[in-house]
Structures are given as C-alpha cells and as structure tokens.
Amino acid sequence: MSVEAKITQPSAERVVVAGRVMPEFHHIGVEPLTGACGAEVTGVDLRKPLSDEVLREVMLAFEHFLVIMMRDQDLSIEQHKAFSRYFGELTELPQAPTYAGQSDMQEVRREAHEPVSVVPFTRFHTDSPFLPRPPLCMVMRAIDAPRYGGDTAFANMYLAYEELSDGMKETLGRLRVVYSGKDIWSKNAKLDKDKQLRLRESHSFSEDHLESVHPAVRSHPRTGRKALYVTPAYFKHFEGWSPEDSRSLLDYLAHMPHKLQYQCRIRWKPNTVIVWDNRFLQHCGIHDYENERRHLVRTTIIGERPI
User: Fold this and answer.
1) CATH number assigned to the domain comprising residue 258
2) pTM for the complete prediction?
3) Which of 26, 67, 145, 178 could form a disulfide bond with 236, CB atoms 3.0-4.6 angstroms apart?
C-alpha cells in the first residue's frame, strides 16, 4: 500500500522523529518510543478488520517509525494471520521453528530451564538476508514474557547510513554482500547440546534459495531513502573480497546499530503485538532474564529483492 505523510503543522512546530518530520494521525493514537524509531499505536483492535482510514494510518506509522507496537491484542492464529496479510504475502523460513503446526508461522521460544543459546543471534542483525527476497517485515506477538528483561532492541539503519562520511557512502555504494544460510545446520550439529540453537529440522527450500548477493546499501522501493544493509548474521564476505579482507569493514559496520541514538526497545508483555521493518532496521533480543519463559510467535512477510 502506498502511503504519504500529511504534514500540516506550521514549520516552527514541526516535530522531527525517526529522521523525518512526524506526520499527523487522526484515526489512531501514535506515541513515539524514542527519537530514532518505534511508536506505540493505540485505538486499534486487531481482532477485527481495519477500516481503510485506520489501515492507511497504521501503514503510515509503520513506514515512518519502522517498528510499531500494540498492547492487549489477544489474537487467534487466524486473526494474527489476517492482520499480517495487510502487509503482504506470508512466507515460510527454512531455519525458524514453526508454531502450532503452521508452516507459515514461526516461534521464538526459550523455556525457563533452557540456556540462552537456544535462541539465535544475541547481536544486532536482520533476519534471513540469504534469501533472494528477504523478509519485508515480521508481525510478532508475545504469548509469555519474563516479568523483567527479555526486551527486543531495534536500530534505525537509515540513520546509521546517513551519518556515514561521504567517502564511506561512496565505498559502500559499490559493494555487494554474499550471505549464505547453507551451513547453519551442519555448524549447529557440531556444537555441544547445551549450546545448540533451536532450528527447524526440515524445509522445502532449494540450495539456490539459501545463498544470495545483495547490495551493502539498500533503498526503499517507494521513497528511495537509503539504509545500511550489512549484518554479521549469515555474512560470508563482500563480493570480490576475501573473508579476511571483509572482516575489518564488517566489524566496523557491525558496531553501528549499537549506538544508542539509533535505537528503541520494546518491553514485551503477553498479547503485545509488534510489526518491524526487517529491511531498514536491525534488531537484537536482550537475554537479561533467567529462570523465566519467553515465548513469541510471528508471521513473516516476503519482501522485494533489495535494490
């Protein structure tokens, strides 16, 4: 769905948040979480079909803030899927465990007695960049959440790119990244049992779909706004570079989402629903909880080929 921000405030009163002037909302409540990204949306009941006016503003909030959060949404599986389809076509993932026998739903689950390692990627990353069309977004709902801790942090990679020097932008603009998920199962099998990830045991993806080459800087297909698209997850090397030569630049870029001025955090509560833009954010689950269950379920929306 195409969305356009309607800006009607006098220039002296315009509020800049998430790197752009904040649009007006008349049919939903929108409260920014930080100046970098994220907003809490109120006045929406996801158990019911959304009106055209409400849907238009939800999409506007999603595009502007990159991650939107809605509390107290007690959804069935079909209601979760129905809301997700407003954002696009649902897709499977080859590596993520499925939920409740639904091939197009995934779960992120850590039982109270389990080690941190069952949940992958405790560093900032973007999901499944090895796919030819990596996910556009995820729609995730909390079933169980720790009393304290277990937040998810997000970092706005538009802002990270925009603060780079012109020379670095020029260099990255010429680079492409080789991402591969071909070896994650074999690597996992070699780990000690108490360090293994919880992965999907089988899938129908071909080998060709488990490795792709994407630009290091990607652009929004509608606005053209550019963002950094380099993540350590599934990273092999920059195209034409050796893994050794690639490592120093990757290490530098991997620190960028850790800057607090790019971030927001979501505190999970049961029936919290979030939608995050997997193209232009990086995210990180924060494992600062022990002896508590954390169970999140999600759908994944297929994206476009990065440009």
Assistant:
1) 3.60.130.10
2) 0.92
3) 178
